[in-house]
Specification:
Largest sheet: 7 strands, mixed
Radius of gyration: 15 Å
Helix content: 25-40%
CATH superfamily: Isochorismatase-like
Order of helices and strands: EHEEEHEHEEEHEH
Shape: globular
Distance between the termini: 9 Å
Structural class: alpha/beta
Length: about 190
């Protein structure tokens, strides 16, 4: 179902700014390697590849277009079929508009990978599911960072946040899968 001949690979916000230690502790050190494997697999099989870049409105922040952190990480190489730029959490609210771009090409399924698991990746998956796309969420090709717990104090670990995202999405908005499952299924 989520093969390169049917599903677009949507790589969300794989940008240099997320290497900044100010983000704090991250999970999944294998994220970028898995993104690279998916990208190579999709290209080798002629699949559609979408790059999504967050272009922040806030000057002086790493994701602002004038900052070096706005650039894609090295794992994101070559040209995509389309580059979507956004200023919010969803790849579906950007330029060009992703939903009509996919529909014009007869694409009804997407595979999501990138940064951050529980932020832009999860939001994109939720919107994709609500818009009627079949969505695969490549959990091991995403990563996130620890967050402060606004209610109980302390910190919610990145691994916990990723597991909660998986539980939130699976079955309702997406199928949560691994990179190996996606590659083996093609």
């Amino acid at each position: 179902m989520f093969t390169p001949d049917r599903a677009a690979l949507v790589l969300v916000d794989v940008q240099q700014a997320f290497h900044d230690p100010a983000w704090g502790t991250r999970n999944n050190p294998g994220c970028e390697a898995n993104i690279g494997r998916l990208l190579a697999h999709w290209r080798a099989h002629g699949g559609t590849v979408v790059f999504v870049r967050h272009d922040s409105d806030e000057t002086g922040w790493g994701l602002h277009p004038s900052e070096p952190g706005n650039a894609f990480q090295e794992v994101i190489s070559g040209e995509p079929d389309v580059l979507v730029t956004k200023r919010v959490n969803s790849a579906f609210i950007g330029e060009p508009a992703l939903e009509p771009w996919l529909r014009e090409r007869g694409i009804d399924a997407i595979v999501i990978a990138g940064i951050q698991t529980n932020m832009c990746c999860e939001t994109t998956a939720r919107m994709g599911g609500n818009l009627g796309f079949d969505v695969a969420f490549a959990l091991d090709a995403t990563h996130t960072f620890d967050l402060a717990d606004p209610l109980g104090g302390g910190t919610i670990g990145a691994d916990t946040l990723a597991r909660v995202t998986a539980a939130n999405l699976h079955g309702e908005f997406a199928q949560v899968v691994s990179t190996d499952e996606l590659i083996a299924g093609s």
